Structures are given as structure tokens and as C-alpha cells.
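seq:
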Amino acid sequence: MNGDKTQSLEGSAAAAMLAAFPNATRDWMEIMAESARFLSARLRADVAAQQAMLACRSPAELFQVQTEFCSTALQDYANEAARIGRKMTETVEDTLTDLKTGRARGYDDVPL
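struct:
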């Protein structure tokens, strides 16, 4: 019962966010989708590396596979961090622009 109330609150909060800031909501959803895509790709690469390690016939071959795996993983994570960082910067800039656009108040519209 309490879970239903929480889901209802989450749904209404998401709807309010979407109505108030549609561009920001879309951008954050894209960031979450990109994160999920990256995680999925890395998990597939991890499984492939494990399979390659299990197929190794010598310590030297295992060392080579591990070295390639680590090098590729580090590069993948660095690229993804840069990609997400750029997208987050764009999202914040878009959100700030949305906050400014058409919502400014004039000095003469506040009664004294």
C-alpha cells in the first residue's frame, strides 16, 4: 500500500518536471539512456574478456589478454566520462536558458 503511494508521488513529480522543464527532462533521460547503453556494452566486453582469459594456454597469453582488456576498459571509461560530461554541461546550459526565457519580471509589476 505504501509502495503505491510512493509510485504515485514519483509519477506526479516526474509529470511536473516534464511539464515545467521538458528540455531538461529529455536531456536527463538521454543521459540515463547513454549510461545504460555504456554499462551494457562494458558488461559484454567483460564477458568476452573472461572467455578470452579462460581460453589462454600460457601465462604470457593471459598477461596479453589482461593488458588489452585493461587498456580498452580505461579508454572506454575515459571516453564515456567525457561524453557524459559534455552532455551534462549542455543539459545545465539548456536548463539555465529555459529558466531565463520568458520568465523575467519587470520592475513595475510588483505592487508596493
